[in-house]
Design brief:
Number of strands: 11
Distance between the termini: 15 Å
Radius of gyration: 20 Å
Number of helices: 3
Helix content: 25-40%
Shape: globular
Structural class: alpha+beta
Strand order of the largest sheet: 2-1-9-8
Largest sheet: 4 strands, antiparallel
Number of domains: 2
Strand content: 25-35%
Order of helices and strands: EEEEEEHHHEEEEE
Length: about 190
Amino acid sequence: MPSARIRCTHCDYETREVRRPILVSYRFPDGTEVECGRAKGWCFECDAYQDIESADQARLARERDDRDRRAASLRAEMRSLSRGLLNWFRNRAERSVLRDELRRIERDQLDLAGLLRVVQLRASRPRCLECWSERTAPVSFAETGRSDFVHACGGRLLLVEDESERFAFATTRFVLDVEGRLLEEREED
């Protein structure tokens, strides 16, 4: 995995942004699970830039709406390619590609619906995936590499791409309850 450096614009804070492959699954009380990724953020308990839960309800709702629009567009395109017997035969391969993409989007929609359910059920804030503290803040970077997060010193975090070091990690899966408490951790192939 490629890496990058994260540094503060006003103090000497610096760390590596190592993009470890992490999967997060939420287990509902009935035993069903929904899978998602993770976000990057600041953990005030670790006093560091860390992986945190991705539990932003507004962002998840926007993703769901974007996927709804894309699915509708794919369905309309498939209908258009299926009009008439000649088009039905001529566009078989293209319709197959569209059908596969539509299936992938529909699976993603089920996961997003489950994640929205998790976010709506929970009372706790997104947790740090290192120390499990709720004292976190999401961090995102603009195209300039400057973050929206204000560090304790008043500076901003800055993302500096650095291809000089690469790291390899096994995928780690965290299974959490709906409140974000760790139930199980395992490495996957």
